[in-house]
Each structure stands twice: as structure tokens, then as C-alpha cells.
């Protein structure tokens, strides 16, 4: 972690989900925005409100957020990347890279991209593309043998721009509590 990043974390009293050094250099980020790991105080910075634009979040309170954050951090398998409006200190986009450790492929690791979302007010600025490029580079740097994601049919052309190809169908069982 660089001195400037360390100072920024101390001033804002945050804990980072993972080392910011894992995030590759980003050339096309609009002024006033920063790409960074999820912070422990992003409950207050609108992270869940952005995530709610993608799927059902539920009634998550701050303590539940912190508990999940700590659980994800301790596993060292979750890389939640956010884009923040630095002036407003608001999360405006997010995406997650999950690393699964395997016995197959010489005890390799597989990456999964999940929960890619851009706040509706910020769409059309290529922030989703920035997040996808970041996650793809991170996956390469983490030496995954495969990176996959699930998406709706209408999003397949978008993701194909990042090197994803349609693969076999999958099945799912849902165990919704509601």
C-alpha cells in the first residue's frame, strides 16, 4: 500500500476488504471517481443501495454488513471492487470477483464475476466496462485457470467484449427464505 493510500485510509477510518495493490492501473476513469476495494464503512456510503439496483438485498443493518465484511475479508477469496464519487463519498458502481480454490487443474483457482452494477444515474459512462476490465486483470494476476459469470441473455454482447464466450448451460436450486 502506498503512503498516499495509507494516509487516505487513516483519515477516513476505513478497513479495506483486500490490498488495493491488487487493483490494476486504470487509464480511463472519469475525473472525480476512484476505483478501490470495498471499505468497512461502505454501508454508510451507499454500497447496498447500489447493489439493490441489481437484486434483492433485504434488511441488512450496519452490524450485519460489518460481520459479512469481516467474514469475506478473512476468507481472502472475495474481491469487491467499487467506484466511488470522491466528492460525495458515495459508491456508484460495484463488482465482485470470487476466487474458488480447487483440487483440479493442479490445485488451481477459478474466478467468478458476480454482482456487477452501476447506479442508474451513472450508467452510460462505461463504468461497467471499467469494472469488468479491472476484474479480468485481477483474475489474471491471481492466476485463475478460468473466469466465468452468469448473465441475462441481453447482456451477453456486453460481456463478450471482455473475452467471455458462451459456455454450457447451468442449473440452479434456490433456497429463498422468503
From TrEMBL:
Pathway: Nucleotide-sugar biosynthesis; UDP-N-acetyl-alpha-D-glucosamine biosynthesis; N-acetyl-alpha-D-glucosamine 1-phosphate from alpha-D-glucosamine 6-phosphate (route I): step 1/2
EC number: 2.3.1.4
Catalyses which reaction(s): D-glucosamine 6-phosphate + acetyl-CoA = N-acetyl-D-glucosamine 6-phosphate + CoA + H(+)
Family note: Belongs to the acetyltransferase family. GNA1 subfamily.
InterPro entries: Acyl_CoA_acyltransferase, GNAT_dom, GNPNAT1-like
Name this polypeptide is given: Glucosamine 6-phosphate N-acetyltransferase
Gene3D superfamilies attached to this UniProt entry: 3.40.630.30
Domain of life, source organism: Eukaryota
Keywords: Acyltransferase, Transferase
Phylogenetic lineage: Eukaryota, Metazoa, Ecdysozoa, Nematoda, Chromadorea
Sequence ranges assigned to domain N-acetyltransferase in this UniProt record: 33-178
Gene Ontology terms: biological process: UDP-N-acetylglucosamine biosynthetic process
UniProt-recorded Gene Ontology molecular function terms: glucosamine 6-phosphate N-acetyltransferase activity
SUPFAM superfamilies: Acyl-CoA N-acyltransferases (Nat) (SSF55729)
RNA-binding listed as a keyword: no
Amino acid at each position: 500500500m502506498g503512503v498516499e493510500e495509507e494516509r487516505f485510509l487513516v483519515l477516513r477510518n476505513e478497513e479495506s476488504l483486500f490490498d488495493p495493490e491488487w487493483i490494476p492501473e486504470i487509464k480511463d476513469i472519469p475525473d472525480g471517481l476512484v476505483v478501490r476495494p470495498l471499505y468497512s464503512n461502505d454501508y454508510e456510503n451507499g454500497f447496498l443501495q447500489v447493489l439493490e439496483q441489481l437484486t434483492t438485498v433485504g434488511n441488512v443493518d450496519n452490524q450485519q454488513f460489518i460481520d459479512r465484511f469481516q467474514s469475506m475479508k478473512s476468507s481472502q477469496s472475495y474481491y469487491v471492487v467499487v467506484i466511488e464519487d470522491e466528492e460525495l463519498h458515495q459508491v456508484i458502481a460495484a463488482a465482485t470477483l470470487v476466487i474458488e480454490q480447487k483440487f483440479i487443474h493442479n490445485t488451481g483457482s477459478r474466478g467468478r464475476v458476480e454482482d456487477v452494477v452501476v447506479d442508474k444515474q451513472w450508467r452510460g459512462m462505461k463504468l461497467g466496462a471499467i469494472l469488468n476490465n479491472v476484474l479480468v486483470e485481477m483474475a489474471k494476476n491471481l492466476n485463475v485457470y478460468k473466469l466465468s459469470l452468469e448473465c441475462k441473455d441481453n447482456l451477453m454482447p456486453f460481456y463478450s467484449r471482455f473475452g467471455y464466450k458462451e459456455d454450457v448451460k447451468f442449473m440452479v436450486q434456490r433456497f429463498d427464505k422468503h
